[in-house]
Design goal:
alpha/beta; 2 domains; Amidase domain-containing protein
Length: about 575
């Protein structure tokens, strides 16, 4: 990406400095990392996380050999997708990897918002270049003690909030399945790296879907836990100090078994001894797994803002059909109004008028279109936004078409401390309403989609809008555990819109946000891109959600519709 000409000279210099630093670090790597993959490398790539640990602890494979294999793949991933933000390989080479540990030899990448001593935590902002951190985040210290090898940092977008991963600092990251499309955001670099087998585990973060979107877009697995379950301290947030909708750190993996095993092994390390924000909650057995009971599933078909596209709807329908064939009870979940929850969430996100979000950014630093639109909206006086909302409600035809968008538009404004406290009270009442419905309807899980669209074309976050994040953001507001797993691929014939769709009554009833999102939907261009579903449990039910994800995956395989990732 070219740095804008109107950007500050210091911004341009620091972007150039970081790019040169990355080139130099890569050039200084031992030549073995640039050599073709060997048969031994291929064997290592075929090992699960558990197998890597077992082989390393048995000294059948050296941790250095695992590092070498995954570094080779990470360099190939960088060349193909531009997914790396820093190299930490030389530091790993200097350290002795402890044996007989729960993660001995496991290669882990870190999103470039996680503090590592001696390295910048840029968060894709040029002002953070040349300011290495004095200490490492608790999750980094825990992983080192567990025997893991953290070899690279991965790219993220400036400002975090985005459906694509781009910045002046690192450029644009592409989707491994099709370079014309986004890998998701804000953990987009990690999603691309995982899909390319450049790491076994990526540690990302999630405030509105930032870990789950890249998992969905790149055909990998990820789960956001509840507050306090996974070490998150010293992992930078786009909104530091915000407790109303906190940023959650969590892992992504190429396979579900690796994701579940990693979660368990991290919790078994007693993360509360490393991170004061972690709850002292050990890993627990799942009741329906022990008893053999088949859990009950509740389906959320729409977030009330953007209906699922044909590809997203097929992914959900195929999952529902597979569960029913496997003998599970599947019902429609009648949730509290999701738009009302999103209104609460957006008020809390931007309660300071965007001040902390924009503070690290320099003049002229490029923002994605969605975040740029949001910041412009925040800068409008509240009475102007209320007037716009009134016009949307009164002039839109059919009547009521834009009511959801009008309601959300009014939430993008600064609040007083008293207003924010009242909004927290609203949030708790909303959480209580969900809890009541969950218990009343007797479900174990919610099953839904992570987004209404497949991976979007690069450069289209502004068209699709950040408000399209309702399917994921609502579970941050609720603080529910939520995991994403790939289930199918876009099919240009099965997933196409009717030729006259824009003239249809269905489209006529779409709000303006939905119309914008659907304007980029093209099943032909998107053919072959991964599609995912989202499994949701209640607070602190991470073990249960992982077990639920396994049930969906197994049911799809038994139905002959299992997801097979592409090899790059």
């Amino acid at each position: 990406m070219l740095v804008p000409m109107f950007a500050s000279s210091q911004h341009r210099r620091d972007c150039a400095r970081k790019q040169q630093e990355l080139r130099t670090k890569r050039q200084l790597l031992p030549t073995v990392y640039s050599q073709p993959l060997t048969d031994d490398d291929q064997k290592i790539l075929g090992l699960s996380l558990s197998q890597v640990v077992d082989e390393c602890n048995a000294t059948a494979i050296a941790p250095s050999a695992v590092l070498q294999t995954y570094t080779k793949r990470s360099l190939l991933a960088q060349d193909a997708t531009n997914c790396l933000a820093d190299f930490m390989i030389s530091e790993v080479e200097k350290r002795s990897v402890p044996l007989q540990r729960p993660l001995t030899g496991v290669v882990v990448s870190l999103k470039d918002c996680i503090d590592v001593e001696g390295y910048d935590t840029t968060c894709a902002c040029s002002g953070n270049v040349g300011h290495p951190r004095a200490s490492s985040a608790p999750i980094v210290r825990l992983l080192r003690d567990a025997g893991a090898q953290m070899h690279v940092k991965t790219t993220l977008p400036t400002g975090f909030f985005s459906l694509e991963t781009l910045s002046d600092l690192f450029g644009e990251t592409s989707n491994p399945y099709n370079p014309a499309f986004s890998p998701g955001a804000s953990t987009g670099g990690g999603g691309a790296l995982l899909a390319y087998q450049g790491t076994l585990i990526e540690i990302g973060s999630d405030i509105a879907g930032s870990l789950r979107y890249p998992a969905a877009y790149c055909g990998v697995y990820g789960m956001k836990g509840s507050v306090g379950r996974f070490p998150s301290y010293a992992c930078e947030s786009p909104l530091p100090g915000l407790e109303g909708v906190p940023t959650i750190v969590g892992p992504m993996a190429r396979t579900l078994d690796d994701l579940a095993e990693f979660w368990k092994r991290v919790v078994d390390m007693r993360p509360w001894l490393y991170d004061h924000t972690c709850s002292p909650l050990p890993w627990r057995p799942v009741d329906f797994v022990l008893s053999g009971r088949k859990p009950k599933w509740g389906i959320v078909w729409s977030d009330g803002v953007i209906p699922p596209s044909p590809a997203a709807l097929r992914a959900l329908n195929e999952s529902v059909d597979a569960l029913r064939r496997a003998g599970h009870e599947v019902v429609d979940f009648h949730s509290p109004n999701i738009v009302e929850g999103l209104k609460i969430g957006y008020k809390l996100l931007f309660s300071d008028g965007g001040e902390t979000l924009l503070a690290p950014m320099r003049k002229g630093e490029t923002l994605n279109g969605g975040l740029l639109n949001a910041t412009r909206l925040l800068q409008l006086p509240l009475f102007v936004k209320k007037a716009l909302a009134l016009l949307l409600r009164s002039l839109s035809r059919p009547t009521g078409r834009n009511d959801a968008w009008a309601a959300l538009l009014e939430t993008f404004h600064e609040m007083t401390p008293a207003d924010e406290r009242r909004t927290i009270v609203e949030r708790e009442a909303y959480r209580a309403a969900w809890h009541t419905e969950w218990q009343a309807q007797g479900i174990d899980f919610v099953l839904t989609i992570p987004h209404s669209l497949p991976p979007i074309p690069r450069g289209e976050t502004g068209t699709v809008s950040l408000v399209s994040s309702g399917y994921t953001f609502i579970f941050n507001i609720l603080d529910y555990a939520a995991g994403v797993l790939p289930v199918t691929y876009v099919d240009e014939l099965m997933d196409c819109l009717p030729e006259d769709f824009v003239q249809s009554k269905e489209f006529a009833n779409f709000n303006d946000i939905a119309r914008g999102a659907y304007s980029v939907y093209d099943s032909s261009a998107m053919h072959g891109l991964p599609m995912a579903v989202q499994v949701v449990g209640q607070r602190l039910e991470e073990e249960k959600v992982l077990a639920g994800m396994k049930i969906v995956e197994q049911a799809l395989w038994e139905a002959g519709k299992g997801f097979a990732p592409k090899k790059f």
